[in-house]
Amino acid sequence: MVLPILTYPNEILRKPTKPVTFPLSKEIQKLSKDMIDTVRNADGIGLAAPQVGKSVKVIVINLEKNGVPLMALYNPKVVSRGFKKVDIEEGCLSIPKVFGLVKRPKKVVIEAQNAEGEKVRFSDDGWIARVAQHEIDHIDGILIIDLIKKYTQGEEIVSEWKKHKI
């Protein structure tokens, strides 16, 4: 089922999230499936549970168009960051019409759990690393508007929010 995607300034986007426990509850299993449906429907490359109103540590990465199988990760975290950083334009389904350059480590090591609760650990220096960092930020209450160094679109929208302390 496709879920509505919450947009800024919804307060859930800033709330701390809770870890997922195993075995996965039926609610978390359904949430994961619904998040996959939602990210595909939105033509997005990633989605975090807070974006659909759930304060739990669940993300999905949808890089199928790049030949990468879609993945749902539970309790993900960055455990190591390379020292080389790159500026890449990012957008966010929860902050429509706003894009800008975000500097992130090019290479990261991610630890998470799969749907069976098994630990997974992987290193990447491409799109998986980029999307994983963005989505992990979401489960930590961090948004791209906190990180953008130079706006490429929508700066006036963010200026209005700041003016009104939103």
Keyphrases for this structure?
single chain, 166 residues, alpha+beta, Peptide Deformylase, 5-stranded antiparallel β-sheet, 3-stranded antiparallel β-sheet, 3 helices, 8 strands, globular
Give a written overview of the molecule.
This protein is of the alpha+beta class and 166 residues long. It has one domain (11-163): Peptide deformylase (Peptide Deformylase, Alpha-Beta Complex), CATH 3.90.45.10. Helices cover 23% and strands 28% of the residues. It is built from three helices and eight strands. It has a five-stranded antiparallel sheet with strand order 1-2-3-6-7. A three-stranded antiparallel sheet has the order 4-5-8. The longest helix is centred in the first third of the chain and has 16 residues, at 26-41. The radius of gyration is 15 Å and the shape is globular.
